[in-house]
Write a structure and sequence with these properties.
Blueprint lengths: L19 E3 L10 H6 L5 E3 L22 E3 L11 H8 L5 E2 L14 H4 L1 H66 L2 H12 L4 H9 L1
Parallel strand pairs: 1-2, 2-3, 3-4
Amino acid sequence: MININLLSVSNLPKLNKLRKLELSDNRISGGLEVLAERTPNLTHLNLSGNKIKDINTLEPLKKLPNLHSLDLFNCEVTMLINYRESVFTLLPQLTYLDGFDADDQEAPDSDPEADGDGLEDEYENGEEDDDEEEDDLDEEVIDDEEDEDDDLEGEEEEDGVDDEEDEEEDGEDDEEDEADDDLPRGEKRKRNLEDEGEEDPEDEEDDEDD
């Protein structure tokens, strides 16, 4: 709720799960006890650019045990002597005030839990797993295609062998036919009869004469 001319947070609904609240650039000057009542699990609170003038105005925030980051940039309270020491003393649960801890160490750029970055990381990891699964599936498909190609090549080789055998048999038959053509007509006829299991009539006549 940034820069919407808020004068107070009295109408804030109860948000037990809310962790990060942005209220910068409004006109809030007090009434922060509402935050302790309605956002008890708040961890990040930004009140920069509001009308907060006194340290005592921040006292209700003591009831937010999980609050560890508070921003008060451009509030008049930041002009007070010993401002930082006073706030850290008042709110011992704080880790960062205006982006720095009590030892003037800068806070990280973002908090994964507060910004939802952790959820994005999980989503990205899920996509990587899907990509890996897709890659595995692609490899399996390629392997199957290679196996099919090998099978087809094997079948073609077998067909080639069968064709060669058929050609050889046909060649042998042709050679026998040519050999028969070279025989005298009588011998050829006699050979044909022998193949068919019959006797030559001339041989039968010779047997009768005998």
